[in-house]
Amino acid sequence: MASGCCGTKKQKLNNSSSVPSCNGSSISNQMVALPEMCFFCFDVLYCHLYDLAPPKTPSFSNDAYPLFVTWAIGKDKRLRGCIGTFNAMNLQSGLREYAITSAFKDSRFSPVTRDEFPKLSVSVSILRHFEDGDDYLDWEVGVHGIRIEFINEKGNRRTATYLPEVASEQGWDQMQTIDSLLRKGGYKAAISNEVRRTIKLTRYQSEKITVSYQDYMNHWNSQRC
């Protein structure tokens, strides 16, 4: 199921995706995320906005990973949509799906428009190296993304996540990040140390590639030569 990754506008997404089932294959240090993945996301969005046939199958890897697609807008790169999945998906179909989902179905924002297209940038995050944390502080700001699972004040199980860059971009320490995630996940009561200690935390790392509209156009023009 889809999850929102960022909380910089409104923190009201309740994430409910299951913990990813990492397939036990050997961990490779080779980079998975490539600029071509971002160019493909732009292609997909353009075709959708202008009611064109979907772009052809890309040439990058089709291995399966959890992934997120983030759209930002303007010179200050304000968040415009960010949705992904913790379930491993084949990259080609996963990016095709979430390029659209993050642009049109992030409930914090209105759908992306044609007029906005030239002002966008897109980031692809490939999530890797999932580990169970010993407690809610068993992770490092700027290195790990975190996904927390907790029981809210009504006794319901909830989850929420931030990608690795969020805490650093917001200037948060570990405690501020955890408390923000609890609020993002819908926890409305007072947050105490007892509440924090009940959190089940999963940490992960991501490879992130970002491409601007100008980068995309330069790439597109180079393909015509």
TrEMBL record:
Residues 26-220 form the AMMECR1 domain. Residues 1-22 are annotated as: Disordered. PROSITE patterns: AMMECR1. NCBIfam families: TIGR00296 family protein. This is AMMECR1 domain-containing protein. It comes from Cryptolaemus montrouzieri.
